C-alpha cells in the first residue's frame, strides 16, 4: 500500500491531477520527500505533454493508480542539493525525463541502460523506494536523485527543449544503437507528430536524407519548409509508394495506431532496418517474407539511459535542435489534452508551469 503523499512528506507541493478515467485535470495538493544526501530539488518551470500522459490520465493502458500527476519532460531550476551532490548546484538549469530511479546493480544499469532496468521507477504512476507514489512534472517542484537529473545545455531553450527529454531520446537512442547515422543514407520517418518531427531534425543533423512518410498530404509543405525534410511520401498514394520501394536504408516508425508493417518494410533496401517506437495497443503482424527476402530487421527501443540522454541533449544543443511547441498554462491542460487526442498540435504542447496559477 502506498503511503499518503498528501500528508506524510515534508516538502509541500501542488500539481494538477487526473482522478478518474475521464482524465479531467484539477489542482491537487500533495508533498515531496525531504532533499536527501543524493537528491536535487527542482523548481519546475516547463513540462512537455507526452502522448503517454494522456493514455495514463485516461487509464487507456489499464495501469493507472489515481490520482495521477503526469509529466516526464521536466525542465527547471535547482533550488536545493543534498550533501553528496557534486554534479549540480543551486540555480542550475536541469531536466528530468521518464525515470527517476533504477536498481543500479543489474546488467542493464551497469551498462548505463537504466531505461531497461527491471526495477526502474518511472517519474509518475510508479511506487518509489520509500513506498510513496511518484508524481510527475505537472507540478511546482520535484525531488530526484542526482543520477537521474540531466544538465540542460546553456543555449537550449527551456520550453522547446523540454520535449527532448522523452520525444528526443526516444528517437535518438535507436538511431545510435542500430547504426542509423551514416551520413548520406536515407531515413524514412513514419508519422509526423511529437516523436516524428524531432526524428526529422535529428536525422538531418546526422547528415541523412530524410523522407517523411505520412497519411496526411496536408503536412507536406511544413515537413519540408519548416522541419527540413528532403521529401514527403503520402502513404495512401499507391503510385508514389510503389516508386519509393526499396529506396530507404532505415525507417523510424513512430505511429502508435495499429498499422501494417508490410508497406514500410517494402520501402527498405536490402539490409534495411525498421525500428518501432510507437506503442500500438494491439500486436502488429511481422511479415516474415519481407524480412527474410532482403535480410531486413525490425527492432524496438524505449527512451534511453542517463548517459545517452545527456549526450542527446548536448548533441541537440550543438545542432540547435529543439521541438516545435505550443505553450499552454496549467489551467489549459484539459483543452490541450482534448486537442492532443485528435492530434491537433504542432508538434508538442509544453506547460508553462512557472507562469501558471496552480490553484
Ligand atoms: Zn513520453
Ligand atoms: Zn537495474
Structure description:
It is a single chain. Strands 3, 4, 5, 8, 9, 16 and 17 form a 7-stranded mixed sheet that branches. Strands 12-11-10-13-14-15 form a 6-stranded parallel sheet, with helices on both faces. Helix 4 packs across helix 10 (306-318). It has 2 domains: 11-166 and 324-355, Quinone Oxidoreductase, Chain A, domain 1; 167-300, NAD(P)-binding Rossmann-like Domain (Rossmann fold), CATH 3.40.50. Helix 8 (262-267) links the parallel strand 13 and strand 14 (268-276). The longest helix is centred in the last third of the chain and has 13 residues, at 306-318. The chain starts with 10 loop residues before the first strand and ends in an 8-residue tail after the last strand. The protein has helices spanning 51-57, 107-110, 158-161, 167-177, 194-205, 220-225, 238-244, 262-267, 288-292, 306-318, 333-341, and strands at residues 11-18, 25-32, 39-49, 74-81, 93-96, 99-101, 121-122, 141-145, 150-151, 186-190, 209-214, 231-234, 248-253, 268-276, 297-300, 325-328, 348-351. It has 11 helices and 17 strands. The structure holds zinc ion (2 copies). Residues 50, 52, 72, 166 line the site of one zinc ion. Residues 102-103, 105-106, 108-109, 117, 119 line the site of one zinc ion. Belongs to the zinc-containing alcohol dehydrogenase family.
How are the secondary structure elements laid out?
Elements: E1 11-18, E2 25-32, E3 39-49, H1 51-57, E4 74-81, E5 93-96, E6 99-101, H2 107-110, E7 121-122, E8 141-145, E9 150-151, H3 158-161, H4 167-177, E10 186-190, H5 194-205, E11 209-214, H6 220-225, E12 231-234, H7 238-244, E13 248-253, H8 262-267, E14 268-276, H9 288-292, E15 297-300, H10 306-318, E16 325-328, H11 333-341, E17 348-351
The structure holds zinc ion (2 copies).
One zinc ion is lined by residues 102-103, 105-106, 108-109, 117, 119.
Amino acid at each position: 500500500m502506498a503511503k499518503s503523499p498528501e500528508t506524510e512528506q515534508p516538502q509541500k507541493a501542488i500539481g494538477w491531477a487526473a482522478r478518474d478515467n475521464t482524465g479531467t485535470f484539477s489542482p491537487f495538493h500533495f508533498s515531496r520527500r525531504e532533499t536527501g544526501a543524493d537528491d536535487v530539488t527542482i523548481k519546475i518551470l516547463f513540462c512537455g505533454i507526452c502522448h503517454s500522459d494522456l493514455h495514463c490520465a485516461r487509464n487507456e493502458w489499464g495501469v493507472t493508480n489515481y490520482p495521477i500527476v503526469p509529466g516526464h519532460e521536466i525542465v527547471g531550476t535547482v533550488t536545493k542539493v543534498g550533501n553528496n551532490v557534486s554534479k549540480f548546484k543551486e540555480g542550475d538549469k536541469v531536466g528530468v525525463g521518464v525515470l527517476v530511479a533504477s536498481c543500479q546493480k543489474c546488467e542493464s544499469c551497469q551498462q548505463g541502460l537504466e531505461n531497461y532496468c527491471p526495477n526502474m521507477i518511472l517519474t509518475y504512476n510508479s511506487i518509489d523506494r520509500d513506498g510513496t507514489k511518484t508524481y510527475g512534472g505537472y507540478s511546482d517542484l520535484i525531488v530526484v536523485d542526482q543520477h537521474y537529473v540531466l544538465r540542460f545545455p546553456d543555449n537550449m531553450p527551456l520550453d522547446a527543449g523540454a520535449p527532448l527529454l522523452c520525444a528526443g531520446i526516444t528517437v535518438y537512442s535507436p538511431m545510435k544503437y542500430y547504426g542509423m547515422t551514416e551520413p548520406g543514407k536515407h531515413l524514412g520517418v513514419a508519422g509526423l507528430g511529437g516523436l516524428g518531427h524531432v526524428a526529422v531534425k535529428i536525422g538531418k543533423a546526422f547528415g541523412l536524407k530524410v523522407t517523411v512518410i505520412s497519411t496526411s498530404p496536408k503536412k507536406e509543405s511544413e515537413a519540408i519548409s519548416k522541419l527540413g525534410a528532403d521529401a514527403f511520401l503520402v502513404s495512401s498514394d499507391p503510385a508514389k509508394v510503389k516508386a519509393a520501394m526499396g529506396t530507404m536504408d532505415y525507417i523510424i516508425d513512430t505511429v502508435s495506431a495499429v498499422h501494417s508493417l508490410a508497406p514500410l518494410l517494402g520501402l527498405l533496401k536490402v539490409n534495411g532496418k525498421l525500428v518501432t517506437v510507437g506503442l500500438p495497443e494491439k500486436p502488429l503482424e511481422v511479415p516474415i517474407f519481407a524480412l527474410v527476402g532482403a535480410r531486413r530487421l525490425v527492432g524496438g527501443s524505449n527512451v534511453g539511459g542517463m548517459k545517452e540522454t545527456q549526450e542527446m541533449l548536448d548533441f541537440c544543443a550543438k545542432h540547435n535542435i529543439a521541438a516545435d511547441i505550443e505553450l499552454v498554462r496549467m489551467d489549459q491542460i484539459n483543452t490541450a489534452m482534448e486537442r492532443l487526442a485528435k492530434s491537433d498540435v504542432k508538434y508538442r504542447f509544453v506547460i508553462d508551469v512557472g507562469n501558471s496559477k496552480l490553484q
